[in-house]
Amino acid sequence: MKKMKMGITNCLCYLLLFLTLIPNFTASQVLFQGFNWASWNKDGGWYNFLITKVPELADAGITHVWLPPPSQTQRDGYQGYLPGRLYDLNASKYGNQDELKKLIKAFQDKGVKCISDIVINHRTAEKADSSGLMTIFEGGTPDDRLDWDRSFICVNDKPISGTGNPDTGGGFVDAPDIDHTNPRVQKELSDWMNWLKTDIGFAGWRFDFSLGYSPAITRMYVANTKPNFAVGEIWYSDHSLEKQDDYRRQTVKWIEDAGGEVTAFDFPTKGILQAALVQGQLSLLNDSNGGAPGVIGLKPGNAVTFIDNHDTGSQKTWPFQDDKVMQGYVYILTHPGIPSVFYDHFFEFFNGGLKSHISQLIAIRSRNGIKPTSSLRILAAETGLYVAAIDEKVIAKIGPREDKVAELIPANFQVVLSGDQYAVWEKKA
Ligand SMILES: *[C@@H]1O[C@H](CO)[C@@H](O)[C@H](O)[C@H]1NC(C)=O
Ligand SMILES: *[C@@H]1O[C@H](CO)[C@@H](O)[C@H](O)[C@H]1NC(C)=O
Fold first, then answer.
1. How far, in Å, from the CA of 89 to the mean position of ligand 1?
2. Percentage of the chain exceeding pLDDT 90
3. Ligand 1 mean position to 34 CA, how many Å?
4. What pLDDT is recorded for position 28?
5. Within a domain: residue 424?
6. For the segment 99-134, what is each residue's pLDDT rounded down to a tens digit?
7. pLDDT of 13 strictly over 90
8. Ligand nearest to the CA of 286
9. Is the pLDDT of residue 1 over 70?
10. Is residue 10, in this structure, part of any structural domain at all?
11. Residue 42, domain extent
């Protein structure tokens, strides 16, 4: 009797072991950016507001929610991108530490993981030193963790040149760039991120301005903190169509140099997709090898696709055209890559959001088992018409043209979703 019980327990152990060994990225992950540029200004606080949306987001099939940078920020950086006292989560415009923990717990209870926005390229100081320069940093704890001085700032930072090592990446103007080659910086930031995991409940990271330091630095923070999911903001400044092919290669190189497990936002897919839709030149969605032209065409398992975010959309630095947004979602939610959905599109666009159609696309993705590395076969990519088969199970069409569609779609496929200039078919059971 005793022996038999042991056997069952062993079986369970093996099953659990097996389940935990399945790599994170095999499932149909769908990210959600849970804020926009104005969210800090929400009456009653953003965390308290977003918690009311947890059931809807979980029901829609969202697996990971990206939350804004949670720490205290200096000056008027209300959105969180000029952080100072990193351990102080009570001085954020989005809400306090208890409200944040409650929100994360509410998502967890529904099986959804939260991703913290990690702003570590630069940091704002608390006080000026004896020469009047703002270089005295405070961590927000009673001890000296993250209490730094000028020696933690890169020597070539502008305007405050520190006495640390040269920056390993691009510079940021509004706050001092931190010297990530300093072992104390590495240890204290890793400890802080691990605290965000163990004490606050975050499961992973969205690295802000990942080009601000070398990919080896990202690799080190990922190794030290073992996130369930990590994505870097690899955003190059030139938005012209001609540059996107170079950029996707540089993004792939960054992913590899950062250890190969981390993912990157697929800015090239966003740029090419929106240009193709605006110009009606859907041939742009076929690269010279007959594949997808963005990072998803080269390294789909590490590419996080998106339509707009708090910068490109909210601040209109590179916005998708409103009436093309749904076609954009048809593309990213049926195609390889790890798709993400922006708050504004889901809840606010066209009075009431695109929630219903976006949720249906997520359901199609999930019931057909479309994965980041699913196969893509482009059936048509020409002026006004793009049609592609994913895993030979789902066919997606975008663009105004209707001719040719009948001849391209096999008889054993049926329409499961259609709208203005788009349609999706599924293989009949
Ligand atoms: C923030 O508030 C929480 C809950 O009241 C408290 O435990 C924590 O120590 C506070 N943090 C700071 C930096 O004051
Ligand atoms: C995609 O582009 C390649 C290379 O130009 C071409 O050979 C192929 O026919 C194109 N595919 C479609 C569906 O147009």
1. 7
2. 91
3. 23
4. 75
5. no
6. 999 999 999 999 999 999 999 999 999 999 999 999
7. no
8. 2
9. no
10. no
11. 26-371
Q: Is the pTM of this model over 0.85?
A: yes
289 is a domain residue:
yes
User: For ligand 2, what atom is nearest to the CA of residue 379?
Assistant: 13
Q: Ligand 2, closest atom to CA 286?
A: 1
For atom 11 of ligand 1, the residue with the nearest CA is 88
**Residue identifier of the C-alpha nearest atom 1 of ligand 1:** 90
CB-count exposure of residue 374 (10 Å: 0-12, 13-18, 19+): buried
Q: Does residue 391 come out as left (phi exceeding 0), alpha (psi in the -120 to 50 range) or beta?
A: left
Structural domain total, the chain:
1
Q: The domain spanning residue 223 has which CATH number?
A: 3.20.20.80
Residue 428 domain flag: no
